[in-house]
Structure formats: C-alpha cells, structure tokens
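Support request from a user on the community tier.

User writes: "When I paste my structure tokens into the form, the page sometimes reloads and wipes my input. The last time it worked, I copied everything first. Here is what I submitted, just in case something in the input itself triggers the reload:"
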C-alpha cells in the first residue's frame, strides 16, 4: 500500500485527484519488488514500459565500445525512468534499466499508459510536468558537463543531490558525471581532508 500511496502523493503535486479516481488509476499499474542488479528493461528490446520508483534506486546505462557501462540517468523515490524517446515511438531502446538497490516500482505498459490517459485526462497534465522536469534535469546535466570543471561537476551534483553520494556506487556516479572512478575517488578524498 505504501508503494501506491507514493504514486498518489506524487500525482497530487501536479494534478489534483481524489482517492476514488486513484483507485481506478492504480489498476493500470503492476507493482514490482525488484532485487538489487535486477534488469527491468534490456538494450535492444522494445521499450514499452514506464517505471515509477516508490522506494529504492534504478539506473539506465549503455555499454560503450570498450565494454564499459556508462550510466545516463538515475531514478530514486518519486522519479520516473525509461527511455522516454523509445517509449514514445515504441521502438527498441539502446539502454538497460537496472536496480541499483532493492526497489519497489510501479510499472505501466505503453498500451495501458495510452488507455490511462484516455480514461483520466487530468493525468495528461501530470505527465507533462514529469516530462518537463525530466527534460530540464537532462539539460542541466549537459550544462554541467560543458561548463564546469570535473571537480565542480561533482561538487554541484553533491550539493543538489546529497542522497546519491553515499547511496550510489562510485563507478556509476563517475560515469554519470563523465569522470573516471579513480578521479572521483581523488575528488572525494580531497574534500574529506
């Protein structure tokens, strides 16, 4: 029930709905209890699922030509995650989505998502807000990469998202920030001195 309540509270930040309407909305979702390192979506498969993190942490990554995993996004409590472009176009994703830690997730298929929006038009506003925030966060990440030194990138990330610093494995955080794990370790050690 806590998993469902998390979504109810999140929806009501952007679009007001009552418990009666929410009891209909939640029927479009599946609740998943995900183990650490469990894959929810695999690169090369059709992207037909959207995930809401009620508890835990997920990340999406690709594997580069050298075989190194490169994290492109994280999702913690109250965040949505998928390859939004592939989900929209219903095509194969180039990214794998995996649990960083044991997580409780609500999943909706693309077909159910379309049905949900038709049955509950107020959720169009909700998802528009979600996508705007997601797009804005991606733009800020790009600005950090182009505008700040490597040390500034980490320091700003730590200031804005302190919950990640001790929660996410260092190698994932490093690739997300465009750093090597060794360099990130050096920066973190410098701040502790």
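"...and here is what came back when it finally went through:"
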């Amino acid at each position: 029930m806590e998993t469902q309540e998390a979504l109810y509270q999140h929806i009501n930040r952007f679009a007001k709905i009552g418990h009666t309407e929410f009891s209909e909305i939640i029927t479009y979702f599946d609740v998943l209890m995900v183990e650490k390192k469990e894959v929810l979506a695999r690169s090369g498969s059709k992207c037909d699922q959207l995930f809401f993190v009620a508890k835990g942490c997920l990340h999406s990554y690709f594997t580069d030509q050298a075989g190194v995993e490169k994290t492109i996004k994280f999702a913690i409590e109250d965040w949505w995650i998928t390859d939004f472009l592939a989900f929209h176009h219903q095509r194969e994703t180039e990214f794998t989505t995996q649990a960083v830690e044991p997580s409780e997730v609500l999943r909706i298929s693309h077909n159910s998502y379309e049905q949900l929006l038709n049955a509950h038009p107020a959720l169009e506003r909700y998802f528009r807000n979600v996508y705007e925030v997601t797009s804005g966060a991606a733009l800020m990440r790009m600005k950090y990469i182009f505008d700040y030194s490597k040390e500034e990138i980490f320091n700003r990330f730590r200031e804005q998202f302190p919950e990640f610093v001790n929660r996410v494995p260092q190698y994932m955080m490093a690739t997300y920030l465009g750093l090597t794990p060794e360099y990130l370790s050096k920066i973190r050690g410098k701040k502790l001195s």
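Agent notes: The reload is a front-end session timeout and is unrelated to the input. Strands lie at 30-34, 39-41, 49-55, 58-63, 69-75, 80-81, 96-99, 103-109. The first strand starts at residue 30 and ends at 34. Escalated to web team.
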